[in-house]
Amino acid sequence: MNRDEFTERLIAYVNDELREGDTPPVEADTDLFTGEALDSLSLIHLLAFIELAIGSTIPDEDIVMDRFATPGKIAISFWSGE
Fold it and tell me: Which runs of consecutive H residues, i.e. helices, occur in the chain?
């Protein structure tokens, strides 16, 4: 899997498993912290999904808004391509 495929899996997970009600679908550049894309519990599930996908835990100091702002930024920040 490459970074683009990881991004697509991430978007699909958010849209299929985490998105609430009739909120607009999330895309690669959707800001996850504004609007109603995700709530705080959803972010915890998203973190678990990312850790499982990359095969390692994310250190607490790396869990910052800038790295988790959009699915695209998450992929850039955490997908190593291995």
Answer: 3-13, 40-54, 65-68, 71-78
Question: Which tens digit of pLDDT belongs to each residue from 7-37?
Answer: 999 999 999 999 877 888 999 999 988 867 7
Question: Of residues 36 and 75, which shows the higher confidence score?
Answer: 75
Question: CB neighbours of 15 closer than 8 A, spacing ≥ 6?
Answer: 25, 26
Q: Hey, where are the domains in the chain?
A: 3-78
Domain covering 3-78 assigned CATH 1.10.1200.10 in the classification: yes
Whether residue 16 contacts residue 24, with contact meaning beta carbons closer than 8 Å, is answered with no
